Amino acid sequence: MIDNKPITISLFAGAYGLDLGLEKAGFQTVSLVELEPDATKTISLNRPHLSPCAVPRDICQVNPETLLQEAGKLLGLDRPLRSNEVDLVTGGPPCQPFSTAGKRGSVSDPRGSLFMDFIRIVDEIKPRFFIMENVKGLLSSPIRHRPHDQRGLGSPQLEPDEMSGAALQVILAEMKRIGYEVVYDLLNTADYGVPQCRERVIFIGYKSNDSVTLPLPTHSQKGTGKNPKWLTLREGLKDLVDPQPEFVPYSENRLKYLRLLTAGQNWRDLPSELKQAAMGGAYKSEGGKVGFYRRLAWEKPSPTVTTSPHQKATDMCHPDELRPLSVRECARIQTFPDDWVFYGSTASKYRQIGNAVPVLLGKAIGEYLYQIIKGDRVQGREIFEQLSLFA
């Protein structure tokens, strides 16, 4: 800790959602790495003191010593920050190979991905803790995907790298190799006061002399015990001032179907004779297809904010108005403050917001770790069932 604040270094910082949540919990970000130019500009606009390190750069080319030098300058020290002064390193290595949203093709081996640059920097800096965030699909991803028509009776037995969870086993082994104990679980952001059902896998790495789980939920679906009910979309957008909503408009072809739907409905609620024409080639495809022609419901949490809330398969149509949720509305659902400025085109702003970790989830994790750093006794979430599934 420096000046009584825990120190964090952010990798794959994006639009700063996780880091902003950690700030709210009392952490101080002293260096960061992000490749996407608009995202680095977003950080610079909102956190000018980070401008020297908020420049587009490839993590593959980043030396951990550079990050420690930047941290020392930002803190006003006459030397680089020392490794034992870094409390936390965070990051969400790009998750496309593990996503369940698209087609499941061959999954890249994590040992050949940007995940290993995250591991490399953690290993050299050796913080007390690290946080890694990723998508739900990581829990079940093989390293090598075998097509379904080549499985089952009469097919060769699956190889170890074709088994469900093979990628996860590699990730856990690499974390263990560099000297960290690891806890992980699938968290729903709605359980932490975010007006959105968004499931993400959170890993926390820690040294063996610490005792760590994950933060206790602050909300629940039905409002059981001391926890209030999940926040709804209406509650999440309450008092938002957005007089000129910024959004990508729908085409007239999309609008003619959306006009037939009301809040909480999707393509399945269209008249039977119109469904196939509305869906086109997707009509006969597999899956629930719940995102097609989806109008959000006021009295439920938002579904996961996507990077393209105006696209056909990931529709986030306003409950009452014939438009997608605006940039500002998406940011509010991701629990960014209303004065947080996003740089770039409308499509770029949507992408930055959709890729971000919700601020309030970051805050909950940060508050939990801060209590441990201060030596307080803190109760965490039980995750032993989840761990046993992949032991």
SSE arrangement:
Elements (H helix, E strand, L loop, with lengths): L6 E5 L5 H8 L3 E6 L3 H10 L17 H11 L13 E4 L23 H11 L3 E7 L30 H12 L3 E8 L10 E8 L7 E2 L17 H4 L15 H7 L13 H8 L47 H7 L12 H10 L3 H15 L6 E2 L2 H6 L2
Parallel strand pairs: 1-2, 1-3, 3-4
Antiparallel strand pairs: 4-6, 5-6, 7-8
Helix pairs in contact: 1-11
Key descriptive features of the protein:
globular, six-stranded mixed beta sheet, DNA Methylase, Chain A, domain 2, two-stranded antiparallel sheet, 391 residues, alpha/beta, 11% strand, 12 helices, 28% helix, disordered C terminus, Rossmann fold
Folded structure, characterized:
The chain is an alpha/beta fold. The chain has 2 domains: 7-230 and 357-389, Rossmann fold (3-Layer(aba) Sandwich); 233-355, DNA Methylase, Chain A, domain 2. Helices cover 28% and strands 11% of the residues. The chain is built from 12 helices and 8 strands. Strand 1, helix 1 (17-24) and strand 2 form a beta-alpha-beta unit. The protein is globular and about 70 Å long.
